[in-house]
Amino acid sequence: MSNIIIKGDFPSNTIKNYVTKFYGELDMGASQWEALFEKGTSDRASETEVLTDNFTVIPAKPEASNITYQSASQQFATIYNHDSFSGGFQISREAKDDGKEIDLMKKYMAGLATAGQRTNEFRGANIFNRAYNSAYIGGDGKQLISLSHPTKSGDQANTLPNQVAMSEASLEDLNVLALNMKDYNGNIANISTRKLVVPTALKHEAERILRSPLRVSTANNDLNAIMTLGDFPEGFVVNKYLTSSTMFYVLTDCPDGLKYFERTAPTFSSDKSFEAEVSKYKIFFRNSFLWTDFRGIVGCGNI
To answer: How many structural domains compose the chain?
Structure first.
């Protein structure tokens, strides 16, 4: 049998009072993806969310005349297909018995939980990392960040016409873009920006732009309008799993934007091979990451 942890893999196991510190064992910290997605639970194989259009303004009704009826229809459906994930480890009877000083089973059970968390970090970040990739599309048939999301009132954009570096000006432009967004019938959507999402390389620049009381990189003694107007009431978050050092994103308060569904929470189980005296431990979970309404995010950066 392969990939079985045996006592020879840990020769220090038999040393009495061995210091129980594993080098390379790092705390993952709080989940980073949870600050980016609306969380929900599911009790079925997939979740389907249907986006519809909206009514426009109510017309005036002259006395004794018939009222005007407006129609509505489904625009598109987004299907959240839940993916399954499972992994584990095997440990021999000898390694388990002789490894009590450092408790291999306890260590690697915690390691499975860490691996599960890391998996979700990659999955959540990949929604952003693939935001400009036309191979990964949403319910409207477009990638997450696009200049041409189709609606009944014409194509809409959730990015700037020119991809530019993050700056005070580009963040102001994204804020205005979100404020001017329309619904599917062309009505003002009443959307505001709430949170900036940046990679590690843009952390310090985000701090300067959002929290400096005066404008940055200028000798003019002007107010920092982004700060005084509260354009980003939830500040900014740094995600270490973003692969581009130049791309940046802004989450809005649009309902049903980026979403996560948990079908099966991480569960742990164990089994044993009777003849080989090998214990097996595993983790299993199911979930999905996607977006329903593209207005939940605007983005830009040097691609």
So the answer is: 1
201-222 pLDDT, tens digit each:
999 999 999 998 777 766 676 8
Domain-embedded: residue 60? no
Give the containing element (helix H, strand E) for 272: strand 258-273
Read off the tokens for 114: 């860490």
267, 119 contact by CB (below 8 A): no
Domain limits for position 140: 1-55+73-303
User: Helix, strand or coil for residue 281?
Assistant: strand
* CA torsion angle 193 197 203 204 (round to 10): -10
* Contacts (Cβ under 8 Å, ≥6 apart) of 213: 223, 224, 227
CATH number of the domain within which 105 lies = 3.90.1690
Instruction: State the maximum Cα–Cα separation within the chain, in Å, rounded to a whole number.
Output: 96
**pLDDT tens digits, residue range 19-55?**
444 444 445 568 999 999 999 999 999 999 998 888 8
Strands (E) located in 42-165: 46-52, 74-81, 83-92
Q: Is residue 66 part of a domain?
A: no
Q: Over the stretch 58-104, which tens digit does the pLDDT of each residue have?
A: 889 899 999 998 888 888 999 999 999 999 988 888 877 776 545 66
Q: How many residues does the chain have?
A: 303
Q: Rounded to an integer, what distance in angstroms lies between the CA atom of residue 263 and that of residue 259? A: 13
Distance of alpha carbon 192 from alpha carbon 233, whole angstroms: 10
The answer as to whether 97 is a domain residue is yes
